[in-house]
DNA sequence: AAAAAGTACAACCGCAATGAA
DNA sequence: ATTCATTGCGGTTGTACTTTT
């Protein structure tokens, strides 16, 4: 007795979105804001299911999305966070606000996984290298530790979407350029906003909450969070993790060998329930 | 130049979580 | 407490594009 599908299978368009559809969707969200996806297809006349509309918006049309190549910094963050959080792409994406979880997932599957395989193979024969089980164990410990920090920290409401004006302008601009160069065909190759020149404030990311362990040299105190220092995102005394400390956290050592290097744990505003502790 | 193989990524699918009735 | 519509997430697929043969 399964649930009814989210959308009727008949009469629903699938496949790549056309620029026209993008404009309709963006215009609608510009007026009504994101959400209530169920009503979007009926109100806009789009022959798409609500799920498809939401996905198109969150992964592609939403303002503030950075496209194009990942920087070395982003790459290292993803590697480190993946070691820490596993394949929880939404959680990882919350640390890279300009990237979507889908983007990060794709990048991981197409680039980083191979890279890590090669690197791990390189380290495997090293006599002093850590075993896979040991690294897994340490990752689990850190995941638990991170979850504990999260459970004790304050939640911040997810940041509201910024205005779509910039996105629409970009969309229209690119659309006009592409439509002049292509004939009117129903098979669109790529959506016009896929250019990489999208973002402006690339260095402004910050963390919602921050949890700092007392000291880094005693692993036995990991579970004792009573002496941890917690900061809310609005706390002006909060150290600037992103600019300096995180760089240290990321770059001081090989993240592949030391995913648990213990100094600072940034806490993400999880969309869902944090992982269970034990 | 053409075919085959490889790559990148947008989009879909199914399931789980959530919240309202 | 239960049901059910809606939303969010992660895994997977389809296909356009690029590179190699």
UniProtKB/TrEMBL annotation:
Main location: nucleus
Source species: Senna tora
GO BP: response to auxin
The protein's name: Myb-related protein 306-like
Subcellular location per the Swiss-Prot or TrEMBL entry: Nucleus
Superkingdom field: Eukaryota
Region Disordered, annotated ranges: 181-207
Keyword terms of this UniProt record: DNA-binding, Nucleus, Repeat
Coiled coil: none
GO molecular function: DNA binding
Pfam families: Myb_DNA-binding
SUPFAM superfamilies xrefs: Homeodomain-like
Any GO CC annotation of this UniProt entry: nucleus
Low complexity: bias regions: 181-206
Record domain HTH myb-type: where: 9-65, 66-116
All copies of domain Myb-like, residue ranges: 9-61, 62-112
């Amino acid at each position: 007795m399964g649930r009814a599908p989210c959308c009727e299978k008949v009469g629903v368009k699938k496949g790549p979105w056309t620029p026209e559809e993008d404009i309709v969707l963006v215009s609608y969200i510009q007026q009504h804001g994101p959400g209530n996806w169920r009503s979007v297809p009926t109100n806009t006349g789009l022959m798409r299911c609500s799920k498809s509309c939401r996905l198109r918006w969150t992964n592609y049309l939403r303002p503030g999305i950075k496209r194009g190549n990942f920087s070395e910094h982003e790459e290292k963050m993803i590697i480190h966070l993946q070691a820490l959080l596993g394949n929880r792409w939404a959680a990882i994406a919350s640390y890279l606000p300009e990237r979507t979880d889908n983007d990060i997932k794709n990048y991981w599957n197409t680039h980083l996984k191979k890279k890590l395989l090669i690197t791990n193979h390189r380290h495997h024969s090293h006599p002093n290298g850590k075993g896979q089980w040991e690294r897994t164990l340490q990752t689990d410990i850190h995941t638990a530790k991170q979850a504990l920090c999260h459970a004790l920290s304050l939640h911040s409401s997810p940041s509201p979407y910024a205005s779509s004006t910039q996105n629409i302008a970009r969309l229209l601009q690119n659309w006009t350029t592409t439509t002049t160069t292509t004939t009117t065909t129903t098979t669109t190759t790529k959506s016009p906003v896929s250019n990489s020149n999208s973002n402006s404030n690339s260095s402004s990311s910050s963390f919602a909450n921050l949890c700092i362990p007392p000291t880094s040299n005693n692993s036995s105190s990991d579970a004792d969070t009573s002496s941890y220092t917690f900061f809310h995102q609005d706390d002006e005394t909060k150290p600037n993790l992103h600019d300096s400390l995180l760089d240290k956290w990321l770059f001081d050592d090989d993240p592949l060998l030391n995913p648990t290097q213990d100094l600072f744990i940034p806490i993400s505003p999880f969309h869902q329930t944090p992982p269970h502790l034990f």
